[in-house]
Design goal:
The chain is mainly alpha-helical. The chain has 6 helices and 3 strands. Strand 2 (about 40) and strand 3 form a beta hairpin.
Length: about 150
């Protein structure tokens, strides 16, 4: 049984951990439910008590999420580490995959920006007070027929 102690040797309950890390207590319970945070020790009255290793694990989870890693990837990284294996090769694969996906998304957004700029030029030349009973907005619906605007 691990000892649930934090700085100064005192137990840290869920609210304090959440406040320290800027998380919602429900988030900590969710992390426990999906297995990326081990279930903490409990007091006799059932309160969760966290130790410094839990807090460091949560800091890692927040950092990984801020870098765009999915919870499934974070779970795998932590599982590798918990088994005593170096997670770095796996992390490198995730980073490379994520970078490629971001680069593709940037290309898609750049194409969309170009299409929207063309549409904006066309739309500025059209009257803005047209009310066609069969059309919600003539700018967008005519663009569908005359341009190659794809939904994002």
């Amino acid at each position: 049984m691990r000892e649930a102690r934090s700085q100064g040797g005192r137990p840290v309950r869920i609210g304090e951990v959440a406040d320290r890390l800027g998380l919602n207590p429900r988030t900590l319970r969710f992390y426990e439910s999906i297995g990326i945070l081990p279930e903490p020790e409990r007091t006799a009255s059932g309160y969760r008590e966290y130790d410094e290793s839990d807090i460091e694990r949560l800091r890692f989870i927040k950092l990984a999420q801020s870098l765009g890693l999915a919870l499934d990837d974070i779970r795998e990284i932590l599982a590798l580490r918990d088994r005593g294996e170096a997670p770095c090769p796996y992390v490198l694969d995730v980073i490379e995959s994520q970078t490629a996906a971001i680069e593709e998304r940037i290309r898609e957004l750049e194409r969309l920006r170009t299409q929207l700029r063309k549409l904006r030029r066309v739309a500025r030349a059209l009257p803005d007070d047209v009310l066609d009973n069969g059309c919600v907005c003539h700018i967008l619906q005519n663009a569908e027929l005359s341009t190659s605007v794809k939904p994002a």
